[in-house]
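Before anything else, study the sequence and fold tokens given here and see whether the fold suits the sequence. Record follows:
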Amino acid sequence: MSIKTFIRSPDGTLDIGDSLIDATSLMRFDRRACFLVRDRGTVIGLLTPADVRAAGPSLLPTLGRYEHSSCTARLTVANALRGNAIVVSLEATPVDVARALRAGSQRGAIVTDGPDVVGVVTVDDLLGAAIEHLEHDTPPGLARVLVAASLPPSQDAVRAPRSALQVALAIARVHEARLTVLHVMRGLSARVAAGMSAGVDADVHRWRLAAARASLARLVPEAGAAAVRIAIRAGSVVDGVLAAAEGTRADLIVMGGRPGSPLVRAITRRAPCPVLVA
């Protein structure tokens, strides 16, 4: 893709000796303004509002009070130019322009077709193109949902319309998202664990994992099984949920509980994505 599709005309032309105050007035209402700068009729650079602000009086009152107006009034466009002009061909790609701008100090590039200046491309223009590209490749919506599920005392409890699992299933269906159903097993109490040999402890752990997975599998409707993954972790609930959210790159975490409970607060504070408490 070339830059032909998003180059634009400059907002005007300034002479290198023009007053910086006058240039500021021209750009006051448009942060995307971009003016060609000429020296003896030859285009030598671009001037943006960011360049003007950087060269003008300080915006901090504590510093600006020491800058005498007679000094700032003598500033010209030349004082605001950043290095040498960046010139690119009309056939250049956005990547070419981005690399040139990154290597230089200007916030825009002059686009030429042979000896003629045909337009400009600024950092803001490149960001706009990047946003459109990202939105096209990753349309808004939820692609991955994680639900933290506890093993219910009965099948009816988890199938209630407002249970965390049912809410997460409904959201996943609407967005055609992949759903990860996570259960974090707490460790055995120290008293129980102390009375087991190493072999028995491992057997109990495997049995608990298998029982938890089977229990969760019975809760997931067969119709949605293709888009649902069951995950079992052991240890801290907070650490388990956060690790699963990072590992699955979840766009949303759904969990049960009271919004103000310590568990919910701990997960919400550290979660890499929004948390919905059902």
